[in-house]
Write a structure and sequence with these properties.
This protein has eight helices and twelve strands. The protein has about 260 residues and is of the alpha/beta class. The protein folds into two domains: about 120 residues, Rossmann fold (3-Layer(aba) Sandwich), CATH 3.40.50; about 120 residues, Isopropylmalate Dehydrogenase (3-Layer(aba) Sandwich), CATH 3.40.718. A six-stranded mixed beta sheet has the order 3-2-1-4-12-11, sandwiched between helices. It has a six-stranded mixed beta sheet with strand order 8-7-9-6-5-10, sandwiched between helices. Strand 7, helix 5 and strand 8 form a beta-alpha-beta unit. The longest helix has 17 residues. It starts with 6 loop residues before the first strand and ends in a 5-residue tail after the last helix.
Amino acid sequence: MPGQKGLILGIGVSSADHIPGMRRAAATLGPGTTVRIYGPETLQDDGVPDLILVPDPAAALIGDLVHRTIDGAVRGTLAASHTLRLLRDAVGADHLERVALLETAGGRLFFLAPVGVDEGWTVKEKVALIRRGRELVRFFGLPDRVGVLSGGRLGDLGRHPAVDRSMADAELAARLGEGVHCEILIEDAVGECGLVIAPDGIAGNLIFRTLAYLGGGKGHGAPVTNIEPVFVDTSRASDDYSYALRLAIALVRERKERYPGSN
């Protein structure tokens, strides 16, 4: 996805060690996109104009995003809890919904949700994630099939009440969201589906961390889907920020096309 002329993106940095990688990623976007790097004032200013050093880089990044000084933002390596809380408060949302783009060690791309431990605990929340996640899947050309996971196979019914509830919720979420209940068979879901819905936020976070930290896979960023500004969350499990920046560019472009004059 090439950069779009006139776009300005922001990305947060907590350590000078990450700045070279962010600049390398920005260079792959082409001359039409500018990337501003927001970092703490404790870092040394190297004189390059893309580096913005302020007391609270997360506040500056979110402030510029909501005031449309920049077209989209990527969290980068800023602290997740502080940055996401500022984003939630700035847009007036009571919660944030993220859908992560993951890549297996074998190169299979798929979206996963929920990935926050406080997300996706009810059927209603799962259906909302399916609806918004399906839009991402279609936009990025991944398989349109949605797989909803649960805590066991259907043959495990009766072994534990939590497993029974998990399967009942997955069946209902799959039916309401026009997906398929893949039981606990994540390997089948990833092989067939562009969007995978974990049983709850803890399970989704464990799936993400296992794949990215232990399984040789990658996390390419998690767009926040229930707010108007384009914000892509990231994990420190990946030192390649090009995918997250390109995700932001694609979503900004799509939003400009859908809502002309909105930015």
